[in-house]
Amino acid sequence: MLGRTANGLYWMFRYIERAENTARLIDAGLRMSLTRTDSRDEDWDGVLQSAGVREDYDKVHPALSSMDAVDYLLRDKANGSSVLSCIEAARNNARMVRTALTRETWEAVNECWIDLKHVFARKARSTDLPEIIETIKRRAGLIRGAFHGTMLRDDIYNFARIGTFIERADNTARILDVKYYVLLPAISQVGSSLDNMQWESILRSVSAHRSYGWVYDGEYTPSNIAHFLILNARMPRSLAFSYEKIVSNLCFLGQTYGETHAAHETASTTLTLLQNRTMEDVMDQGLHEFIEEFIVQNNRLGQEIADGYRFYQ
Amino acid sequence: MARKLGNTPLAFDEMMNADSSPRRPYKDYHEWYSSQDRARLITKSRDAENIFRKTGITFAVYGHADSSEKLIPFDLIPRIISGREWRKLAQGIEQRVIALNAFLDDIYHKQEIIRAGRIPRQLIEKNETFLPQMIGFKPPGGVYTHIVGTDIVRTGEDQFYVLEDNARTPSGVSYMLENRETMMQMFPELFHQNKVRPVQNYPNLLRQSLASLAPPGCSGRPRVAVLTPGIYNSAYYEHAFLADQMGVELVEGSDLRVIDGKVKMRTTRGYEAIDVLYRRVDDDFLDPLTFRPESALGIPGIMDVYRSGNITIANAPGTGICDDKAIYSYMPEIVEFYTGRKAILENVPTWRCSEPDSLKYVLEHLEELVVKEVHGSGGYGMLVGPTATKRERALFADKLKARPGSYIAQPTLSLSTVPILVNKGVAPRHVDLRPYVLVSDKVQIIPGGLTRVALKAGSLVVNSSQGGGTKDTWVLED
To answer: Where is the DUF403 domain (chain A) (predicted)?
Structure first.
């Protein structure tokens, strides 16, 4: 496979993942403003921060308002991480790696782009938002379905999966990074309605408010929530789950190509760390410090993969 | 011979006779069509558009920032050619393609055709598409034009003319294949009733044909790749489609590098050699060391690898000279010179404006002629006399007088028509035909091709960039 193709696959799936994550963040934000009587535009501050675009937003908009924030996150081309920008980037990458994709996967991406371009042709009214979010999730689901149902499990598949999980780990880590203070046992007043709201919002932004209830028997504690998102290897958006997938896909690549790179070492080290720590260890190190270090490591891994597999000239 | 062939409203219709009975090749189709519900056909027509859009069969129109991707409209009434008609076309095309290869071999070696006085020396050597770097070099297998798309127009029952030879990088073959695919999906019953010769094995034949011309030093299964300028190129869809269908890599210049005297591509495991490069970039952008130093698309040093016999480039650099419209005007001489026989397929009579007598005639008859740039393509920069305004003709006359050598003129042919589906039923529209030819140790002509159709009533311009559409093209088994 061409290095450029591996690069294209990796980014195609990072962008699809990012588009879906952004939609989920908006969803959580909307939910929060609906359920709170004292909802304020400032609530979107955290959403923009979690999406990693807080500073860039200020360059375009003089003030923080929910509709501007939603528009910026959904369809502003100046925002490289807006849903529309992500879908366009994903489709451009898919076009570039067209020969590596099944017809079903390509068409799912192409139709997603056609559909969303149409949806995003004008500014969304707030009444349309639930349906728009739904459309994004459904389209992303169709891509995922076509991909899993039709793609050969070879190196093409591995690069696509690695892109998905590097992005996902980054996204979950960012949400934690922005909201870590809500999860610190010392600061939070367990059981207050504000905390409950914040916790639910975190869980919603990773589509896990239901599954959390199943796993922890409905007991909302900051430590359990942090555990769920960081260390629980059954939770498909947790750091531990993401790294299990990254390591196993890198492992397949190592077997297929008969060589390993720095990336293999980095990924295994991170996975071992996630598997062997307890929440107490993490809290002792400092949740904030732990997350920050993780984000740096995750970025480094992305770079090492690009180098090892000759993504660029 | 250069008389007006006329732009009469009574063009030859390929489906219907003057007495409103269908022509023979269309008999079965016409019967089927007459029994169809119109609303259903209109729905099918929309379905087809959705299939194309969903599949991403689009092309980029340069200069349209807002709508950077367009669909080529597809008309679902097929263009049907009888087996008898096809045999004559195929013979004529084969003869012409053989002559083109012999011509290229000659002008880059002994230049006998020039010495025999059949073609002016300056027309070859002063031509910007003539590549001195190719002089004395024989490409693997002696083949210059691996893929040719001969443009043919028809004006009557037995009148076929070659309009252009397209020996450089003919495009559109993906539409031939997708049009057929779409028709078979929408109207499977038609393919039971009509014996339509298949075109779907084109990608296989292309791959075999390219692989069979790998350089002599290549051991094992030759590694073939398609070279594209990238996703923003207007024909990118086709490049990806062909690479995909052939099961070969689709590479860009940035993937390739010359290492140890071979052209290699950067893979996830390191650099791997390529034996045959089906390039869909122009000569100018092939090698910045040899041609355009500022080109970011090319592969520095690839021409050295080529000349030392370590890679096959298809089509060979320097074949573009066959697409020059002044050279085209000599095709009857070229065919006769190399094959020893008269050309089976006629050229459209052509005035070379570089010749004073011809220029005078052309200027006096602008309102009935089509004037084209010798290096032009895509229907750009041409004047269709009969439909142009007086002012357009006057402006064009100035251009002609300023640079007569850059233009040729041809009579406005009354191109044959085939009906298309319109709101109120069907209506005849002018068409042309581009069959695709593969050259290796043999010449293979795919029975079918791309039929382009001018969608505007009365229009003779079939180019997709100028409002043309396409049709599925059937060659019948008979």
So the answer is: 1-309
